[in-house]
Amino acid sequence: MLIVFNPTAGRRRHRRLAQALATLRAKGLRPELAETERPGHAIALAREAAWRGCPLVVAAGGDGTIAEVAAGLAGSSAGLGILPLGTANVLAWELGVPLAPEAAATVLAEGAPRWLRPGVARFGDGRMRLFVQMLGAGFDAAVVHRLDLRWKRALGRGAYVLQGMRELGRYPFPRFTAALDGGPAQEVTSAIVTKGRLYAGRHLLAPAARPGEPGFQVALFPRGGALAAALYGAALPLDLLPRLPGVVLLPARRVVLHGEEVPVQADGDAVGRLPVVVEEAASPIRMVLPRG
Ligand SMILES: Nc1ncnc2c1ncn2[C@@H]1O[C@H](COP(=O)(O)OP(=O)(O)OP(=O)(O)O)[C@@H](O)[C@H]1O
């Protein structure tokens, strides 16, 4: 087992990592540890581990680190485990992986295999980005793009709330189009393409989503403006967002988002700007998850 640890993810991460390692060692396991040194490094570390036959690579970090490890394991037979040390840890909430390090380590040692089907985003400039939970274009991506990392370290998820309030006053809500499965282009001001039900931690976004099955749920936000965005932001922690008028949720296998100067985020990382085409990744990933 190789643990790929992002030393910049989340808070209190070193202590939590040490607790997980102690649990694994107490169970007779001898995990290897590799620290990431830069964005994208986890991809290379995971790829190399899969190439030398490592059966399980654990992403110790947040959703961005999981996505990078998943990208490195793509097409291999190695399994992917999660040690949730990130800020939002949406995928851990989604898949029932405990946040307590000892309990998460027990899942790594004794969990069961389950398939996850990541999404892949292709940008206009030819870049590709794999994502495990969701990709957003528009307002939420603007928040991620301009988030101050010092705030994120100090305040955790609260930093997103503060940055969201700042963006309400300055984001211009440019319109762009979303075309689902070759259908007509619809005008929106934000769109979230999600594999899972949850968003920004454990808040409900897409009740019909099934991460282990093909396809996505797509949340479209035709209404722009600070008032609508503030309303959506207030509804999210109450799990009311999917029920709000003006929020459209649709299933799709392929999503084309077209626009200019519209920011894009994937799994909470700033990843570029539109246009982008979102599809299912070529191969599913075998995850090690809680039994039952
Ligand atoms: N050594 C490093 N220095 C700077 N950035 C790094 C380093 N290692 C990894 N990263 C980048 O940090 C990004 C964010 O990390 P990650 O998603 O794991 O944590 P998080 O943002 O705190 O958690 P979450 O996504 O759950 O909110 C990763 O996508 C990765 O590209």
From TrEMBL:
<keyword id="KW-0547">Nucleotide-binding</keyword>
<dbReference type="Pfam" id="PF19279">
    <property type="entry name" value="YegS_C"/>
</dbReference>
<dbReference type="InterPro" id="IPR016064">
    <property type="entry name" value="NAD/diacylglycerol_kinase_sf"/>
</dbReference>
<dbReference type="InterPro" id="IPR001206">
    <property type="entry name" value="Diacylglycerol_kinase_cat_dom"/>
</dbReference>
<protein>
    <submittedName>
        <fullName>Diacylglycerol kinase family lipid kinase</fullName>
    </submittedName>
</protein>
<keyword id="KW-0067">ATP-binding</keyword>
<feature type="domain" description="DAGKc">
    <location>
        <begin position="1"/>
        <end position="127"/>
    </location>
</feature>
<keyword id="KW-0808">Transferase</keyword>
<keyword id="KW-0418">Kinase</keyword>
<dbReference type="Pfam" id="PF00781">
    <property type="entry name" value="DAGK_cat"/>
</dbReference>
<dbReference type="InterPro" id="IPR045540">
    <property type="entry name" value="YegS/DAGK_C"/>
</dbReference>
<dbReference type="InterPro" id="IPR050187">
    <property type="entry name" value="Lipid_Phosphate_FormReg"/>
</dbReference>
<dbReference type="GO" id="GO:0016301">
    <property type="term" value="F:kinase activity"/>
</dbReference>
<dbReference type="InterPro" id="IPR017438">
    <property type="entry name" value="ATP-NAD_kinase_N"/>
</dbReference>
